[in-house]
Write a structure and sequence with these properties.
Number of strands: 5
Largest sheet: 5 strands, mixed
Low-confidence stretches: none
Helix content: 25-40%
CATH class: Alpha Beta
Order of helices and strands: EHEHEHEEH
Number of domains: 1
Shape: globular
Number of helices: 4
Length: about 120
């Protein structure tokens, strides 16, 4: 099940950018954060794919969603200019951003290469 993040839960589960200048991942599992909006067509195309991936990778990664219309400060903090944008956050190392509606096989490759490569 995908979890929608507010600024408060983002600071707790992903990255507290108010306290840290350098990236410091707060989560237990690597994650993908989907920055989206309800009116965005490509976002709607990606949503069911992310649902499938959340089931396929249950217990291995978390998939979060951030509504850029509601959480404008979060979107601005990460320089989100176009949606969908996905932030891939490995347990260790730097996060990587991908922009656009990516197909499932590309998302799976990114999960395997960025998030699950130990």
């Amino acid at each position: 099940m995908l979890e929608h993040l507010s600024k408060k839960t983002f600071l707790e589960k992903v990255f507290n950018y108010e306290q840290n200048n350098q990236w410091k991942f707060e989560g237990e599992l690597p994650c993908i954060i989907d920055f989206y909006a309800d009116w965005c067509g490509p976002c709607k195309m990606v949503a069911p794919i992310l649902e499938e991936l959340s089931k396929e990778y249950a217990g291995k990664i978390n998939i979060y969603k951030v509504d850029t219309e509601v959480e404008q400060e979060l979107a601005a903090a990460f320089g989100i200019r176009s949606i969908p944008s996905m932030l891939f956050c490995p347990k260790n190392g730097q996060p990587q951003m991908a922009v656009g509606a990516l197909p499932k096989d590309t998302l799976k490759k990114a999960i395997d290469d960025i998030l699950l490569k130990a």
